[in-house]
Structures are given as structure tokens and as C-alpha cells.
Amino acid sequence: MNKETKVVATRVTPQLAELIKDICRRDAHVNPADFIRDAVREKIQRDAPELYSELFRIEKAPEGSK
Question: Which residues span the domain enclosing 26?
């Protein structure tokens, strides 16, 4: 799996930021970034399952293959 990451920044309202923090405290999310990554993955999996499965097919490919 490729360990390289990119920063994707966004602005949210104070109310949404507080809601995200509350959900992180309630659920098993380490921090807001962890929650947001999960939310984005779930959204892609739901709305574009073919892209989601392609992403993980690429990430799980054996070393040296493409």
C-alpha cells in the first residue's frame, strides 16, 4: 500500500466542527481527521462503488505490479 498522503483542507461552520468533535468522542474515531477520512470513504463507496473498488485494487496490488 502506498504510504504517501496528500492534505485536503476544507472549511466548516463552527457548529459542524463541534458536531464532528462530539461524534469523535462518542465513536471510535481518533480525531476529526480520522472521522472525515472514514466519511469520505463511505461517501465514495456509496456513490461511486466502481471507483472505490478500483482504489483498493490498486492499493492492494503486489509490489512491482500495476
Answer: 14-59
pLDDT tens track, the chain, 66 positions: 457 889 999 999 999 999 999 999 998 899 999 999 999 999 999 999 888 888 777 666 555 555
Q: What is the pTM of this model?
A: 0.69
Number of Cβ within a 10 Å radius of residue 34:
13
CB contact at 8 A, 52 and 45: yes
Count of C-beta atoms within a 10 Å radius of residue 11:
6
Residue 21 lies in a domain: yes
Contact in structure between 29 and 23 (CB atoms under 8 Å): yes
User: Domain tally for the chain?
Assistant: 1
